[in-house]
Amino acid sequence: MAAIQMHATRLFGENGYNATTVEQIAEAAEVSPSTFFRYFPTKEDVVIKDNYDPLLVAAFEEQPAELSPLQAIRAAMKSAFASFTAEDIATLRERNRLIMTVPELRAASMNNMIQTMHLIAELVAKRTKRRIDDIAVQTFAGAFIGVSISIMFYDAEHPEGDIVQLLDEAWVNLEAGLPL
């Protein structure tokens, strides 16, 4: 999966997203197109799909109970990012740039973000002993994702910044009530 994504990202950078075919990606990754589709049902999924959710869940569940939900998510995200290599961060940023600049990917990413929002709501509901459909839980998850999306857009336009630091600063700002 990672090899296919790596070659896809390289080819998208060289040829553009729309000009790159699944067949070209499969050939570069030395797999068949059917193997590509076993991992990624669509071309968009090669950019959108990742394995970060299990890392987030595990890191979140390890956080001390005395942390607020936002503090626990921030700590979990920092823990997950700490395990990333410089190459992992560069790949994350390139995927983000593609998602934010290619309309088809941006639309597909919104579906992924909604799934992540539901995951966060589940984690927070469990931690706070509230129902997942509690409006406060849903609002919290939506606010967290909204802040994350704003940083994804910012990072795509300002590649010189440190996305991990930007995300953390944004979450600190969220925790402070979004003062301006």
Can you describe this structure?
The longest helix is centred in the middle third of the chain and has 26 residues, at 103-128. It contains ten helices and no strands. The protein has 180 residues and is mainly α. 75% of the residues lie in helices and 0% in strands. It folds into two domains: 2-39, Arc Repressor Mutant, subunit A (Orthogonal Bundle), CATH 1.10.10.60; 50-175, Tetracycline Repressor, domain 2 (Orthogonal Bundle).
| Whole-number tally of structural domains | 2
Give the CA-based shape.
globular
CATH topology of the largest domain: Tetracycline Repressor, domain 2
What's the CATH class label of the largest domain? Mainly Alpha
Radius of gyration, taken over Cα atoms and rounded to an integer in Å: 17 Å
Number of helices: 10
Distance between the termini: 42 Å
Please, what is the average pLDDT?
92
The appropriate CATH architecture of the largest domain is Orthogonal Bundle
Order of helices and strands: HHHHHHHHHH
Which structural class fits the helix and strand makeup?
mainly alpha
Strand content: under 5%
Low-confidence stretches: none
Most strands sheet: none
CATH superfamily of the largest domain: Tetracycline Repressor, domain 2
Q: Helical percent range? A: over 70%
Q: How many β strands by DSSP?
A: 0
